[in-house]
Specification:
alpha/beta, Rossmann fold, Dihydrodipicolinate Reductase, domain 2, 5-stranded parallel β-sheet, 5-stranded mixed β-sheet, 10 helices, 10 strands
């Protein structure tokens, strides 16, 4: 019997070097079997090079050049530059793993493009839970999906929806519902806050049928998501309370860890979950 062939490494580039991207780059630098960090991008390349405390430093490249050097591009950049990362990656037939999942709802043509180029778009679970159960239920009939998100007011600061509607959260003393509508509308109005709603909608019944409430709540210290699913196969409720990242209160610490887990699954011998 011939000896087993050594698996080749997947080259990984990280687009964005902030609260999520910095954690991913550090963990890849420490070593994940079958994966190798080859490049990062950053809004301020010089600053990124100065604070790159990696055992094996990598180049800081423009967003559009990452896919030429990598098999997998992990998008952790601001939502405004999502397409600058995603489009070249998909055109090149690479694997795209986006953190800005809500932007897939705004740029759904990229899914069709991936089908033509052979690229793959892998959406990590992120700051959510239970996507396996939602995906399984979607193989039958899901009647409704509702998500209620509660965040400390500072975690919602700067959201376009609040600015467009003149909603101020300064000095808020009690919980206030600031949005109610579809996951699509919520992802558009709160692009840095509710990527979880977009992921939930993609796993289940779509962005227009998934209902979302967003509350600014000064009584909570964690980003909380409560999901209720009614389906012909099961009825279930899920709640997760995420510790906000120290660098970015809009993002839970578990988001980066979820993306690390998703990266591991690309080369894992044993994969647990749907």
């Amino acid at each position: 019997m011939p000896p087993a062939q050594e698996p080749s490494e997947l080259r990984v580039a990280v687009a964005g070097f902030g609260a999520i991207g910095g954690v991913l780059a550090a963990r890849l630098d420490q070593g994940i079997a079958g994966l190798r960090l080859v490049a990062v991008s950053a809004r301020d390349p010089d600053k990124a090079r100065q604070r790159m405390a990696l055992a094996r430093p990598v180049p800081v490249l423009p967003l559009a050049e990452l896919c030429a050097n990598a098999d997998v591009v992990v998008e952790c950049a601001p939502a405004a530059v999502f397409r600058e990362v995603a489009a070249p990656t998909i055109e090149a037939g690479r694997i795209l793993m986006p953190a800005s999942v809500g932007q897939l709802l705004e740029h759904d043509d990229l899914v069709d493009l991936a089908a033509r180029t052979g690229a793959r778009i892998i959406v990590p679970t992120g700051a959510l839970l239970g996507l396996d159960a939602v995906r399984a239920a979607a193989e039958g009939t899901i009647h409704s999906v509702t998500m209620v998100t509660r965040k400390p007011p500072r975690g919602l600061a700067g959201a376009p929806y609040l600015e467009q509607h003149g909603i101020t959260l300064d000095g808020l003393g009690e919980p206030r519902k600031v949005f109610e509508g579809s996951a699509r509308e919520g992802a558009r109005g709160f692009p840095a806050n509710v990527n979880v709603a977009a992921a939930l909608s993609l796993a289940g019944i779509g962005a227009d049928r998934t209902r979302l409430e967003i509350w600014a709540d000064p009584t909570v210290t964690r980003n909380t998501h409560h999901i209720v699913v009614e389906a012909d196969s099961a009825s279930f409720q899920m709640t997760i309370e995420n510790v906000p990242s120290e660098d970015n209160p809009r993002t839970g610490r578990i988001t980066a860890l979820s993306m690390i887990a998703a990266l591991r699954s690309l080369t894992a011998t044993l994969k647990v979950g749907t």
